[in-house]
Specification:
It catalyses: [protein]-peptidylproline (omega=180) = [protein]-peptidylproline (omega=0). By secondary structure, this protein is an alpha+beta fold. It has three helices and seven strands. It has helices spanning about 1-20, 70-75, 90-95, and strands at about 25, 30-35, 50-60, 65-70, 80, 105-110, 130-139.
């Protein structure tokens, strides 16, 4: 009986880990994307200004690390023209397929983030980043 309970528990843990990993899709560039909420509004076109709330963390060994920035903490969304290089490549790619009202988690490899240079003393060189983003509007 104990053995069957142990096996059932191990199977549940394995299935949960597999489902968690499977919830992210990986684009050809290496960006990992998971839709937490699929929006119902318009999808931005290149050059349109988007308004987003976000929180960013360092991401290492498959785990969320130290938070380094959040528009929610400032209570002010970030506005930028999508697809124009105003933000890191991972953001341009990850937000270009969202719809207004959507919430998405992005895992951004260094080559789509800040690369070998890092940023502002808070993001080390060659860091993988994790962002929770919410697309508030497009204009």
């Amino acid at each position: 009986m104990r053995r069957s309970l142990f096996l059932a528990g191990a199977l549940t843990i394995a299935m949960t880990a597999s489902a968690s990993a499977a919830s992210f899709s990986t684009t050809p560039s290496g960006l990992q994307v998971k839709d937490d909420v699929v929006g119902t509004g318009p999808q931005p076109k290149a050059g349109q200004t988007v308004s987003v709330h976000y929180t960013g963390w360092l991401y290492q060994d498959g785990k969320k690390g130290a938070k380094f920035d959040s528009s929610l903490d400032r209570k002010q969304p970030l506005n930028f023209a999508v697809g124009t290089g105003q933000v890191i490549k991972g953001w341009d790619e990850g937000l270009s397929t969202m719809k207004v009202g959507g919430k998405r988690t992005l895992i951004i490899p260094p080559e789509l983030g800040y690369g070998a240079r890092g940023a502002g003393g808070v993001i080390p060189p060659n860091a993988t980043l994790m962002f929770d983003v919410e697309l508030l509007g497009v204009r």
